[in-house]
Specification:
With 415 residues, this protein is of the alpha+beta class. The chain has helices at residues 2-27, 170-180, 225-238, 243-251, 262-266, 289-302, 337-348, 367-375, 390-413; strands at residues 47-50, 55-58, 68-73, 76-81, 95-100, 104-112, 122-124, 131-132, 138-139, 150-155, 160-163, 186-193, 199-206, 212-218, 252-257, 308-318, 322-325, 355-358, 378-385. Strands 12-13-15-14-16-19-17-18 form an 8-stranded mixed β-sheet. Strands 1-2-5-11-7-8 form a 6-stranded antiparallel β-sheet, with no helix packed on it. Strands 3-4-6-10-9 form a 5-stranded mixed β-sheet, with no helix packed on it. Helix 3 packs across helix 9 (390-413) and helix 7 (337-348) packs across helix 9 (390-413).
């Protein structure tokens, strides 16, 4: 009897090891998310208290960026803003809040430790409603005269929030995603986790039996909030109850990954993941767990029977409204989609000035280049200006979605 018992014990052990192996293999890259090393120095979340002056600065909230604060003299304070690593794009992000034991006016000077332009602040007194700081309370930096950018701020017992741009937080994007997911034609899933374990979510809109797909990404770069505004308006238009939108959803599934880099958004990064990598330069190496999650999710969809990708869009922000695309001579499916779509957008908004840069960064491992080479469809980086108003971004993105749907509905009808 004893040998039999030993064999049973060994068999149970082998079965356990086998099942554990299968479980880990099923989880794939994201099984080890907690083991990946953080390669950028995290800013310390804290309050800077100047008790004699009754002033407190804080970066202790999601999306904040404030690396140091010092009291220079009288009512003048210096805030230090640093990127998570370098070299890095010149797109500084800052976000902090200030409170005071009494109402007073203070001057805040900005010190950037990496080259870049300090944006005129967007301020809020409740963290919900935002407005631009008055122009007469802002002094832009003058590098030749070595004058730092500075803002005059009215502070008091109720905190004032100070941002480089009006924020779109992780909570804002979660609320939008969860609201959209309540519709009968939308489902929300998690395709992976970030380095700190934040979910990377995917929305799927449309007829689950449709084999035509468009892919949409957002928030690879944390400060690029107008890109998020554009993405949400674009997708909201696809989700409308209009005849065009309903026809489109019947023939197409729209796959949306609203936040590729949630850790970067949380920590107020300028560009990178916690792995210290620009995610939009990682579509080839795929060194980051976040980009691997995107790759695996989209390629799995594209391998489904009869699946066909018609378009890939990656929403961003930059200094101007611009589309980064392939060249027209680079054959895509559908043929010449980009040229036809941008022409339709121009006709829809004849007074809207935007640019196209065909062949931009075509030798770099960006999402648009990877998607074009992988799926054969147009891969487009859709950029809105940092300073383009949210209202204008929403209107343009909605019109762009309408024109995209018209072209692709016509394409499928002719096949």
């Amino acid at each position: 009897m004893t040998p039999v018992c030993k064999n049973k014990g060994m068999n149970k052990l082998r079965s356990f090891i086998f099942l554990a192996f299968i479980a880990l293999a099923t989880l794939g890259d994201n099984a080890a998310w907690s083991e990946m090393p953080i390669k950028v120095p995290l800013q310390t979340r804290k309050e800077w208290n100047f008790e004699k002056e009754g002033i407190q600065f804080s970066n202790n909230f999601s999306g904040a960026r404030l690396n140091n604060c010092t009291h220079l003299q009288d009512n003048i304070y210096l805030v230090t803003i640093s990127p998570e690593n370098s070299p890095i794009n010149r797109s500084p992000w800052y976000a902090f809040k200030i409170s005071s034991s009494k109402k007073q006016t203070i001057e805040v000077r900005f010190l950037l430790t990496h080259p870049g332009t300090t944006s005129k602040p967007i301020i809020s007194f409740d963290g919900k409603e935002f407005k631009a700081l008055e122009i007469n309370k802002w002094t832009a930096a003058n590098s030749e005269q070595k004058i730092p950018a500075s803002a005059l701020l009215e502070v008091g017992p109720n905190p004032i929030w100070v941002f480089a741009h009006q924020p779109i937080s992780l909570d804002d994007l979660d609320l939008w995603s969860n609201t959209l997911a309540k519709s009968p034609f939308t489902k929300i899933t998690t395709i992976g986790k970030s380095m700190e374990g934040r979910p990377i979510k995917q929305l799927t809109l449309g007829n689950p039996d449709a084999t035509n797909f468009i892919f949409i990404l957002g928030r690879q770069h944390p400060p690029e909030v107008t890109g998020s505004v554009g993405l949400m308006s674009f997708v909201d238009t696809i989700a409308l109850d209009s005849p065009l939108s309903k026809t489109f959803r019947q023939s197409f599934q729209t796959i949306v990954i609203p936040v590729v880099n949630p850790d970067g958004v949380e920590h107020g990064h300028w560009r990178s993941t916690l792995g210290g990598v620009d995610p939009n330069r990682d579509y080839g190496p795929f060194t980051q767990i976040e980009t691997r999650a995107v790759r695996d999710a989209l390629t799995t969809i594209a391998k489904q029977p009869k699946a066909r990708a018609y378009l890939f869009l990656d929403f961003h922000s930059t200094s101007e409204d611009i589309f980064y695309t392939q060249r027209d001579e680079d054959q895509t499916f559908p043929l010449l989609f980009t040229k036809r779509w941008l022409k339709a957008i121009h006709e829809h908004f004849p007074n809207y000035a935007f640019k196209r840069d065909a062949g931009h960064n075509e030798n770099l491992p960006t999402s648009k280049t990877w998607s074009y080479k992988t799926f054969g469809c147009a891969g487009i980086t859709y950029e809105f200006g940092y300073n383009t108003s949210f209202e204008k971004v929403r209107a343009i993105a909605s019109g762009a979605a309408e024109e995209m749907m018209k072209i692709l509905v016509a394409e499928t009808a002719s096949r």
